[in-house]
Amino acid sequence: MHPYIAVPAVALLVLRAYRSESLTPVGIVTATITAVIHALHPWSVFFALLVVFFIGGTGVTKVKHDVKARLTHSSTGASGGEGPRSYIQVLANSGMGSLLVFLHYRQLLARGQAGDASQACWPYGGDLLVVGIVSNYAAVAADTFSSELGILSKSKPRLITSWNLREVPPGTNGGVSLAGTLAGYLGAFTIAVTSTLLLPFCWSGSNSTGAKLFRDTRSGLQGGREWGVQEILLWMAAVTMWGGLGSLLDSFLGGWLQASVVDARTGKVIEGSGGTMVPVQSPHSKKDDGNASRKIESGLGILDNNGVNIGMAITMSIGGIVAASYIWDVPLRSIF
Predict the structure, then answer these.
(1) CB count in 10 Å sphere of residue 94
(2) Minimum mean pLDDT among 5-19, 84-98, 100-114: which range?
(3) What does the pLDDT read at residue 211?
């Protein structure tokens, strides 16, 4: 991005995070560094993906926040609902994307295409890192939309890791519902649309260096290097579907590896502050009083919510790269 666009854009994004109190102070610093990395890339699309994810994520978090706060408890003793996100939560969602953006920027530098973004385009079957970046944001956006809107579903969620898909309390890790699944695909769709509008596709009318280098009037589906209407529509569908699968993967990992702790008296899920693990023993109860106030509803308790999100984001980003490598017959070594 050009500096006269990047500087005010980053400043506005940070200011919005500060005013909306959606991030902790350290979270704001981490988000600022993340935004700068994205803004340094000559293509504006990656910064736009970060902005769309942030605005969309904070937006759905606030939807009926008072209702969601009554559906769960907080491990700190306060009402449930998502509070300001910590720096670990910022990294869990955008850390992998930032790394891939930096690696792609290095690729452009090596090719001499990092100076003027208008002189470079993305050919069909081109840079695999681009697929990884978009895959990351499609998956984390889907997961955020699914968890924040799915908890409002009128039907009880069902545990994706149970053999009979048994009903579980709202907010249970691994709990899925039709409404939550559809919300996840909506989140992925916002990323698919943003990437489609802003990615510098090599198309038949392009005069960029990339288009001249890969000049082939055939479209990608015909064995060429150009993007046509069919290829772009397939791209949107693939990004949306892949992001939705990321949300389901997160549910599976959460239901399997993350312990869901429930208040034994109210039956409500207890959420860990900042995505951390919830202790089964309440700090307000005695160890040997014989009346445990908390119990584990599901999960092994190996990872906390942040660990699950990081694992999902890395898996879907690398998985997207591997899938594109196979479909496009592009060697994985091309990303280095």
Answers:
(1) 26
(2) 5-19
(3) 46
> Is residue 212 over pLDDT 50?
no
What the block records as the tokens of 118 is 């208008």
Choose among 68, 66, 99, 90: nearest CA to 13.
90
Query: Nearest 10 degrees: CA dihedral of 122, 124, 128, 133?
Result: 60
Q: Given pLDDT bands bounded at 50, 70 and 90, which one contains residue 173?
A: very high
Q: Which two tokens stand for residue 276?
A: 């951390």
Which residue has 């500060």 as its token pair? 18
Q: What whole-number percentage of the chain has pLDDT above 90?
A: 71
Cite the DSSP H helix spans in the chain. 3-20, 25-40, 45-62, 65-71, 87-111, 128-150, 178-198, 209-213, 229-257, 305-328
Contact 115, 144 (CB under 8 A): no
CB 132 within 8 Å of CB 102: no
Whether the model pTM is above 0.85: yes
Burial label, 159 (beta-carbon count in 10 A; 0-12, 13-18, 19+)? buried
Q: Are strands 73-74 and 269-271 parallel, antiparallel or unpaired?
A: parallel
Higher pLDDT, 13 or 98: 98
